[in-house]
Every structure is written in C-alpha cells, then in structure tokens.
Design goal:
Elements (H helix, E strand, L loop, with lengths): L2 H35 L4 H25 L10 H43 L18
Helix pairs in contact: 1-2, 1-3, 2-3
C-alpha cells in the first residue's frame, strides 16, 4: 500500500478522534455555563449546547477534509511522520482556537446574564430619603 494513503488514513482517524474528544469536552462543560446563563432552563441549555456542538463539528470536519490533500508523495516512514506531524499540528491549532473561541463566547454570554441579574435590585424601593441640609440637592 502506498504510504501516502497510510498518511491519509492515520490523519483522518486521529483528526476525527481529536475533534470528537474536544467537542464532547466542550459540550459537557459548556452546558453548565449555558444553564446558568439561561436561568436554569435545562431544555433550552441543551438545545443551544447541541447547536454549538453541531457547528463545531461542521467547521472542524470541514477543515480536516479540506486539509487532507498532500502535494508530495510519502516515500518512507520518516516522511510519513513528518507529513502527519504537520497536518495534525495544524488541526490541533485549529481545534485549540475553536475551543478558546467557544469558551470566550460562553463566558461573554454568562457575564451578560450575570450583569442583567445584578441590574435588578434585590428589594423594591420603599421610599425616598431627604437630602442632607446644605448639599444643594
């Protein structure tokens, strides 16, 4: 069998496995943030979480597929490892950027929810106080 085909198979297997692992990690831990932001609405948190995971899969699998082609033939084991290291390194960087992007977005959503909750006073105003004499108010 041609070593270029072996490189393709190894690249696809490792890239798909890494993408699934990162997506599951994001899904499992991101659900907690979404539940907090959505004020405990578990069904909505699950739906948003699922949509984020599907988008993550689409972007990453699309990138993996586009980055599959190899310009040069792989002739020996050394070239096989070099080709795999470059391709997997780029895939890992893309997964890392996507992961950080997801964490950033989830954190922004969570902060917005916390800020909205803090804007509502815990106790309704019960009256007015008079200004201190000489303050001009």
């Amino acid at each position: 069998m041609d070593l270029t085909v072996v490189a393709y198979i190894a690249y696809l297997l490792i890239s798909v496995a890494l993408t699934i692992w990162v997506a599951r990690t994001l899904s499992r831990n991101g659900r907690i943030f979404l539940s907090d932001v959505l004020h405990g609405n578990e069904k909505l948190a699950d739906a948003v979480n699922h949509l984020l995971v599907v988008g993550f899969y689409l972007v990453n699998f699309g990138f993996v597929a586009l980055y599959l082609s190899q310009d040069e033939a792989v002739l020996d084991a050394r070239e096989l490892f070099e080709a795999l290291s470059v391709k997997l390194g780029v895939v890992l960087l893309v997964l890392g950027v996507m992961h950080l992007g997801n964490v950033y977005v989830l954190n922004k959503i969570r902060r917005r929810g916390v800020m909205e909750r803090e804007q509502v006073p815990p106790v309704a105003p019960q009256g007015w106080t008079k200004a201190a004499p000489g303050t001009g108010a």
